[in-house]
Every structure is written in C-alpha cells, then in structure tokens.
C-alpha cells in the first residue's frame, strides 16, 4: 500500500516536472506564433488599434485608413504615441476615439466594448496589432465581444527577427498559456 502510494506520487511528480520543462522549453524556443496576414473578405466598420508594441501598429492603421478613409478608429491602451502618430500623419481628430485605461489585451476588449456599443452600425471590427500578438488578440476579442465579427491586420515579421521581436514572441507564448488557463481564451485554434 505504501509502495503503491510512493509510486503514484513519484509518477505524478515526474509527469508534472516534464510538463513544466516542456512548457518552459516551448516558451523559450518555440516557433509559435507565426502569423500570416489575411485581409478580411469584408469591409470593416471600425479600425481598432491595440496600444503597446511599436510603430508598426501605427503604420498598419495608416495603411487601412488610406484604404478606407472615413472609418472611425479606436485606439485602446495607448499612452498617446499611436494617437499622436495618427494625427501627425493627417488622420482627422474627429475619426479617432481614445480609450486610454486598458493595460492588457483582456482590458482592451472589455474597455472598448461600451465604446463600440455606442456605435450600433459597427458589426465588423478590424484589429490592428503586431504579428506576434495577432492570434491571442483575435481570440480574446472574439470571446469577450461575441456579437461582433473580428479580423486582425498587422505588418509581417522581419525576415530576421530583431531582438525586440524575439523577446516579444517569447512573451506572447507565455501570455498565451496564461490567457488559456486564466480566461479560457484559446489562441491556438483558428
């Protein structure tokens, strides 16, 4: 009986350690996410730019603004950098709304929900983020705002990722696991 308990405990410990080592190895050296941009088959009603990241998000938002110049743009969780870059590039202030309190992707989705609710004509939303953040952000918004249709746009990854992109990709793998267990958001399925 005691031997059986020790064997079960040992097996459980070895299994747990193996899972932890595998997860840490994947976070450190995995190749996910490896997003490929796909333009939506529909015209968005709103462009939603997620704060954080780098100037790639502003450039991508400007690319979509030039394609659909009258669309409203919501910038969420940004300290003002993206907002400034958009207005300096000529986007009219009247098209931009700024939600400045979000500090995470989860909060981006929660805090923009009432803003978008105030625009009943908005059903299709184009998220703008970085390539490494695309899968998780899309999964979060689809889960938190299921009444809307979402697509995601981003600049593609560099041929040779720079150190910031490599670090961000690692962080994204860790965040994906956290969001899976904390919020039940599965960024690994389409």
Number of helices: 6
The number of domains is: 1
Number of strands: 5
CATH C-level class is: Alpha Beta
How is the topology of this model organized?
Blueprint: H1 2-29, E1 46-50, H2 55-67, E2 73-76, H3 81-88, E3 96-99, H4 105-117, E4 124-128, H5 134-144, E5 149-153, H6 163-183
Parallel strand pairs: 1-2, 1-4, 2-3, 4-5
Kindly describe this structure.
Residues 45-156 form the DUF218 domain. InterPro entries: Cell_Envelope_Assoc, DUF218, Rossmann-like_a/b/a_fold. One of its GO terms (cellular component) is plasma membrane. With 190 residues, this protein is an alpha/beta fold. It has a single domain, classed as HUPs (Rossmann fold). Helices cover 49% and strands 12% of the residues. It has 6 helices and 5 strands. It has a 5-stranded parallel β-sheet with strand order 3-2-1-4-5, with helices on both faces. Strand 4, helix 5 (134-144) and strand 5 form a beta-alpha-beta unit. Helix 1 (2-29) packs across helix 6 (163-183). The radius of gyration is 20 Å and the shape is elongated. The model has no long low-confidence stretch (mean pLDDT 90).
